[in-house]
């Protein structure tokens, strides 16, 4: 009898041991991730030559990690083009590294070489390609001008080089020769280090589907995004947006970006929820892009406390901003108030527009007599337009810089900052800054901190920013606060994306959107010609 009880206890304690170990698995532990900031070759060779050059760059970066990574991510549209397409299987049992006798898809050699690299360095690998789908062009829709179906596609290889996930971009952005899938896809994959990832592409991050579907619907905590993102001031520069998105979704985010600063494109990083950036890069000081692999040890659980001393904080030296930036197009519609540049000022202010009210409490002081920027508080509720027929309902409020006292100069880089960076004597020190925002609740919304420091266009880190959120009956109350004085603020705001709230009133005519596309193509062309002349 005693023996039985003892054995029973043994079994019981064994059971507890197992549960404890299992519970620990998800909450402890790290994986090593790499994201590439990558400058694609876009001129000076045939399409095939450009592809070869890009591939060589990929292989070199993969090798530079010496097999230390669990996963490496490359950006959107930095490898092949619509004239060097490849087929992409949905998944394969075997490595794509070697051709199989029963292969029925036209897999391009470059994709096989990447599969071999994943195997050689024993790492998961995510790349984005232009894919030629096997099916014929359905006659009823004008599927690209190429006559077959082309997708903008993420491919994921496991450590053997087998394809374990494929995602075709849903929210296309000015991609006239690329097709959408009929339905949005939710792409996820599991790894041998116990992280389940969801992945999508660039512009997708501004919409509910598939990005929020993955996080809210499927409970994904590790997210990958491949990007070629054009930064916009004051709220949507690349790293700022990535960090805010990961922060509010409380997920790990691996963001790999194309590097083409002369075209406004840069921004990569690895973020762990509200623990901020673990690695990040914005090419702000140079006009030529880079090829660099950013590495970080990522907690499996983004809520798992990391050592505070690990927080990265870039220097606050003045750095010139050469990156070409877009400007928020609706600034004239904001309700704003300009801060007087008087030493030792303090103010409490409540500003409302439509259904959004925000309370600001601020103390500030210009350091010298001629501040490099003026500052405004602003509140805006409206629908913003991206190119094409894409819209989001936005509610936002915050503080941002303007380069003159004209509202339309907000979100423009000042001459001084473009040339030398903001000198110490022209800065404004904020010693207290608190925003209390009362945002209406909607089933689909994502309210994020949107912060920016002028020295490298990075968001504030957890040691600099306090953020709390309370759900009341019909309101989400956000409190956002500066934790320590800051003298290089460009943006300090609460940015609410209400996605498709007004979807039905937002639509414009085809003519309007076609004009937008034409204009964009024209500008791109001019930009390229400009580059050649330079
Ligand atoms: C890879 O090895 C090279 C040469 O030993 C070294 O310089 C480099 O720092 C290593 N990289 C990593 C990520 O460990
Ligand atoms: C992942 O979890 C399994 C069981 O759930 C465990 O056996 C394994 O050691 C874990 N792997 C890592 C890398 O934590
Ligand atoms: C929220 O609810 C309160 C009381 O229930 C009401 O007075 C207020 O008008 C509501 N606000 C909005 C924005 O619907």
UniProtKB/TrEMBL annotation:
Segments passing through the bilayer = 515-533
Looking at the record's lineage, which domain of life comes first?
Eukaryota
Domain annotation CN hydrolase: ranges: 31-300
Q: Which InterPro entries match?
A: Biotinidase-like_euk, Biotinidase/VNN, C-N_Hydrolase, C-N_Hydrolase_sf, Vanin_C
Instruction: State if Glycoprotein is listed as a keyword.
Output: yes
Query: Which Gene3D superfamilies is this protein grouped with?
Result: Carbon-nitrogen hydrolase
Query: Which Gene Ontology molecular function entries are recorded, alphabetically?
Result: hydrolase activity, acting on carbon-nitrogen (but not peptide) bonds, in linear amides
Q: Which residues form a coiled coil?
A: none
Question: Where does the UniProt annotation place the signal sequence?
Answer: 1-23
UniProt keyword terms in alphabetical order: Glycoprotein, Hydrolase, Membrane, Signal, Transmembrane, Transmembrane helix
Hey, which family's this protein in?
Belongs to the carbon-nitrogen hydrolase superfamily. BTD/VNN family.
Full protein name: Vanin-like protein 3
Q: Which organism is it from?
A: Drosophila suzukii
Q: What is the lineage of its organism?
A: Eukaryota, Metazoa, Ecdysozoa, Arthropoda, Hexapoda
Q: Gene for this protein?
A: LOC108021838
């Amino acid at each position: 009898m005693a023996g039985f009880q003892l054995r029973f206890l043994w079994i019981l304690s064994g059971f507890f041991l197992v549960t404890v170990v299992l519970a620990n698995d998800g909450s402890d532990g790290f994986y090593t991730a790499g994201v590439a900031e990558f400058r694609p070759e876009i001129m000076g060779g045939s399409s095939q030559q450009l592809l070869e050059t890009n591939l060589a760059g990929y292989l070199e970066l993969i090798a530079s990690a010496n097999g230390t990574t669990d996963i490496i991510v490359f950006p959107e549209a930095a490898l092949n083009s619509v004239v060097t397409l490849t087929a992409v299987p949905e998944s394969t049992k075997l490595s794509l590294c070697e051709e199989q006798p029963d292969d029925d898809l036209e897999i391009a050699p470059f994709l096989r070489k990447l599969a071999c690299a994943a195997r050689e360095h024993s790492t998961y690998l995510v790349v984005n390609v232009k894919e030629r789908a096997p099916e014929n062009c359905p006659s009823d829709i004008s599927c690209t001008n190429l006559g077959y179906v082309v997708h903008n596609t993420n491919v994921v290889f496991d450590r053997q080089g087998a394809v374990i996930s494929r995602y075709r971009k849903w929210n296309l952005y000015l991609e006239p020769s690329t097709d959408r899938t009929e339905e949005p896809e939710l792409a996820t994959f599991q790894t041998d280090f116990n992280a389940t990832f969801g992945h999508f592409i660039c512009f997708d991050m501004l919409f509910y589907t598939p990005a929020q579907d993955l996080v809210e619907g499927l409970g994904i905590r590790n997210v990958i995004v491949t990007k070629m993102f054009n930064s916009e001031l004051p709220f949507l520069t690349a790293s700022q947006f990535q960090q805010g998105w990961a922060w509010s979704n409380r997920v790990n985010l691996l963001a790999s970006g194309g590097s083409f600063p002369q075209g406004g494109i840069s921004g990569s990083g690895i973020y762990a929820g509200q623990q901020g950036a673990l690695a990040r890069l914005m090419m702000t000081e140079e006009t030529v892009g880079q090829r660099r692999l950013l590495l970080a040890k990522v907690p499996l659980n983004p809520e798992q406390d990391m050592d505070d001393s690990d927080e990265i904080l870039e220097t606050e030296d003045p750095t010139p901003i050469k990156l070409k930036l877009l400007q928020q197009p609706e600034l004239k519609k904001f309700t704003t108030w300009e801060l007087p540049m008087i030493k030792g000022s303090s103010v409490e202010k409540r500003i409302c527009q439509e259904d959004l009210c925000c309370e600001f409490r601020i103390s500030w002081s210009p350091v010298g007599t001629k501040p490099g920027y003026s500052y405004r508080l602003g509140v805006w509720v409206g629908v913003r337009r991206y190119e094409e027929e894409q819209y989001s309902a936005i509610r936002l409020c915050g503080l941002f810089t303007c380069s003159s006292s004209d509202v339309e100069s907000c979100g423009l880089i000042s001459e001084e900052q473009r040339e030398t960076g903001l000198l110490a004597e022209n800065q404004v020190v904020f010693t207290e800054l608190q925003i209390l925002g009362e945002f209406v609740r909607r089933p689909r919304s994502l309210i994020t901190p949107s912060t920016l420091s002028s020295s490298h266009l990075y968001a504030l880190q957890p040691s600099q920013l306090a953020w709390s959120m309370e759900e009341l009956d019909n309101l989400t109350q956000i409190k956002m606060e500066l934790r320590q004085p800051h003298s290089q603020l460009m943006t300090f705001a609460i940015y609410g994306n209400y996605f498709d709230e007004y979807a039905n009133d937002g639509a414009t005519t085809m003519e309007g959107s076609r004009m937008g596309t034409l204009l964009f193509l024209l500008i791109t062309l001019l930009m390229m010609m400009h580059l050649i002349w330079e």
